[in-house]
Design brief:
By secondary structure, this protein is α/β, with parallel strands linked by helices. It is 44% helix and 13% strand. Bound molecules: pyridoxal-5'-phosphate (PLP). Pyridoxal-5'-phosphate binds next to helix 5.
């Protein structure tokens, strides 16, 4: 019999869509994958060269559990530039992706009985990790069209046992980019109610609305002693499988992570650490600029296609690389007796009939949403989105006639 904690974890989420795409491909059917949480692009040559050099040099040993000191130094310098706040090597922990940083944060600050505020729609690992730590996720809905959480709603969710709030801007799945006033108000709440802030900023390099990403620490430097800022190279450098992330936090959290990582993974993969260090030393930012430009073009082209949707508002997609559709109106006007009743049904129909993989909002705790990635190569994206628009626009007519 398995431990109780396993029953607390949500299903495979977006991995389920990946499996459906692989299963269809195995039968020779080509599916356009708009479900993936990664940008399909070759990683920077500097990362690859860094890895090859490390392998050729025979690099093979454990590193310090929180990562190589030169890498932590390089990350502290990068983060200092990006946030306008000074960070030292000792403020940084290198992790196996943002996921490990978030788990370190949860395991470091949460006890059974604690509550953690999570903004919904959420990336599904966030509540699962809170549950793993024995605590209770409490959800505050961020509503369309902006998906920016309402501060009064957050305040209303705070109870004496509330230990932390998790925010994620730019957001997966909604693409929302929190404005400075919202970040400051969340910071004030955290101070007033003595909460930790876990700020997942792993899409920080991908903002498309003219502004740059702003960390809650830049918006409200007063929260530094209670904030764990989590980030990763996974999305920024399109190297999700390399598993390299980091967080910056107060020293007590760094000490906790040293113990946690030493007893769990020992250290992030040493070759990946050298590869990223090399990139940070020699990269001139051209890969990051080109990727941003490519995604920006893909976003504009995609929004043009999606503006052809009837009964579905064009999404904001301010940051990350997701179009998040609110299908509540479309579903509400489908005729009674229509077999399509939910976003799960719609995602199933898109896969079966249009050959397009998407992620239904239930994965993110939202029955109304549908997530489509624009990290897919441009020709596939265009074909996929056109099929989505055609299928969704045909729903009312087709079902009424059925
Ligand atoms: N946080 C969010 C919001 C994500 O969307 C993801 C990955 O999809 C992660 C964290 C995990 O990132 P990593 O692959 O670096 O562990």
């Amino acid at each position: 019999m398995l431990a109780h904690r396993i029953s607390l974890l949500s299903g495979p989420g977006t991995a389920a869509a990946r499996e459906a795409v692989a299963a269809a491909a195995a039968t020779g059917r080509q599916i356009i994958d708009l479900a993936a949480g990664e940008v399909i692009i070759e990683p920077p040559s500097s990362v690859r060269e860094g890895a090859i050099s490390a392998i050729k040099a025979g690099t093979s040993r454990y590193t310090e559990s929180i990562g190589l000191a030169p890498l932590r130094k390089a990350i502290s310098e990068k983060l200092s530039k990006e946030t306008g706040i000074h960070w030292n090597t000792e403020d940084i922990v290198v992790t196996a992706g943002a996921k490990q940083g978030l788990l370190d944060a949860a395991l470091s600050v949460l006890d059974p009985g604690d509550e953690v505020i999570i903004i919904r729609p959420y990336w599904p690992t966030l509540p699962s990790q809170v549950l793993l730590a024995g605590a209770k996720p409490v959800f505050v809905d961020a509503r369309p069209p902006t998906y920016i959480p309402d501060i009064d709603a957050i305040r209303a969710a705070v109870v004496p046992h509330t230990k932390a709030i998790v925010i994620n801007s730019p957001n997966n799945p909604t693409g929302a980019v929190y404005d400075r006033a919202t970040l400051q108000a969340i910071g004030d709440l955290a101070i007033n109610y003595q909460m930790w802030i876990v700020s997942d900023e792993c899409y920080s390099s991908l903002v498309f609305t003219g502004t740059r990403h702003e960390s809650i620490l830049t918006a409200h430097p007063g929260v530094r002693s209670r904030t764990i800022l989590v980030n990763a190279f996974s999305k920024e450098l399109a190297i999700t499988g390399w598993r390299l992330g980091y967080f910056a936090a107060p020293r007590e959290i760094i000490s906790a992570a040293k113990k946690l990582q030493s007893h769990t993974t020992s250290n992030a993969n040493v070759i990946a650490q050298h590869a990223i260090l090399h990139h940070l030393q020699v990269g001139d930012g051209s890969f990051e600029r080109e990727m941003h430009q490519r995604l920006s073009v893909a976003r504009s082209a995609g929004l043009r296609i999606l503006s052809g949707l009837h009964d579905v508002a064009t999404p904001g997609a301010g940051g990350s690389f997701f179009f998040y559709l609110d299908l509540s109106r479309l579903i509400s006007i489908l005729p009674a007796g229509c077999p399509i009743r939910s976003t799960d049904d719609i995602a199933g129909l898109l896969l079966a009939e249009a050959g397009v993989a998407s992620v239904a909002g239930g994965t993110f705790g939202d029955v109304n949403g549908l997530r489509l990635s624009f990290g897919t190569p441009p020709d596939l994206l265009e074909r996929g989105l056109k099929r989505v628009v055609e299928t969704l626009n045909s729903l009312k007519k087709r079902q009424a006639a059925a």
